[in-house]
Write a structure and sequence with these properties.
With 308 residues, this protein is an alpha+beta fold. The protein has nine helices and 17 strands. Strands 8, 9, 10, 11, 12, 13, 14, 15 and 16 form a nine-stranded mixed β-sheet that branches. It binds ligand PPE.
């Protein structure tokens, strides 16, 4: 998806002009992929822009770095403040997507990452519907990927690692080239893991079911966690259970969750319509409640918002 440039990017503690925020071609992460990132959204609310679950995203970034043994020189509090500053200086009062990235810069070559300089950036820009407006409205076409999700002893799946996304890219391209919108990835044990950039829920007999993230080798999604809270508050049963591909084929409803994607109904999986093929009532209710919560329209979820 194209990016609309904004004015400033936060680079190692200072605000740098968008076009000047560049890096050397021999930066370590470009060659070996050791780095970590986050995706965060800010929304327009009636009392100014607010970042959704900002602290939780920055905690995950710090944890990703810990797993990768990257010595991040900022605290969660400092990263939270920096993110809010980026929204403010770029006049993003209508909301935006924020991309914090910690990468290893120029200094050394060779696989050992420990002696390379740690570089931290936070960029932000306005970003529309990640899987398209049509998908948000009518559901997306999913394909089970021929690419498996990482085994936890191949990539630490709790870390949002730069290099690990090659796996997501392979699955995404395969799905797009075959005429689908997005890929569902199975773990090496054949169970459902997650999508190239989202987690997944099914609805069966009125209950919501999602794979347990650590067992499924999926990212512990913050949107997933928000949806679990919302669904429980709406009175639905929510269960963390392993799923197989045939559980998807015969479920009543299914949807994806992610910061960029938000809540998106699944219309079909491997050309089998989910339910009627149209977004189901529980999916629609969760989708619209989430959309209101992130915009500060539901007082019960106010604690999830960080006013800029
Ligand atoms: N799984 C993966 C693999 C993933 O990348 C994401 C977020 C999620 C699940 C959902 O996590 P959360 O955002 O905490 O609910 N994917 C980010 C990157 C998308 C991109 O194209 O870049 C995102 O949604 O920001």
């Amino acid at each position: 998806m194209p990016i609309t440039p904004t004015k400033k990017i936060w680079v190692n503690g200072t605000l740098v002009d968008w076009e000047k925020a560049t890096t050397h071609v021999l930066s370590h992460t470009l060659h070996y992929g050791t780095g970590a990132f986050e995706g965060i959204r800010a929304y327009k609310t009636s009392s100014g822009p607010a970042v959704f679950r900002l602290r939780e995203h920055m905690v995950r970034l710090v944890n990703s770095c810990k797993i990768l043994m990257i010595d991040l020189p900022y605290t969660v509090d400092q990263l939270v403040e920096a993110a809010k500053e980026v929204v403010r200086v770029n006049d993003l009062e209508n909301g935006c997507y924020l991309r914090p990235l910690v990468y290893l810069g120029y200094g050394e070559m060779g696989i050992n990452p420990l002696n390379s300089p740690v570089e931290t950036i936070i960029a932000a820009w306005p970003w529309g519907a990640y899987l398209g407006d049509e998908g948000v409205e009518n559901g997306v076409k999913m394909k089970i990927s021929s690419w498996n999700r990482h085994h936890p002893n191949v990539f630490p799946t709790a870390s949002k690692t730069v290099g690990a996304y090659v796996n997501s890219s392979l699955a995404k391209v395969e799905a797009l080239k075959a005429g689908y919108d997005e890929a569902i990835m199975l773990g090496t044990d054949g169970r459902i893991s997650e999508c190239s950039g989202e987690n997944l829920f099914i609805v069966r007999d009125g209950a919501l079911i999602t794979p347990p993230s650590s067992e499924a080798g999926a990212l512990a999604g913050i949107t997933l966690n928000s949806v679990v809270e919302i669904a429980k508050d709406l009175g639905y049963e929510v269960r963390y259970e392993s799923l197989r591909r045939d559980d998807l084929y015969i479920c009543d409803e299914a949807f994806l969750t992610g910061t960029a994607a938000e809540v998106v109904p699944i219309g079909s999986v491997d050309d089998r319509a989910i339910g009627s093929g149209k977004p189901g009532p529980i999916t629609k209710q969760i989708q619209s409640t989430y959309a209101s919560a992130v915009r500060g329209e539901i007082p019960a979820y106010e604690a999830w918002l960080d006013r800029v």
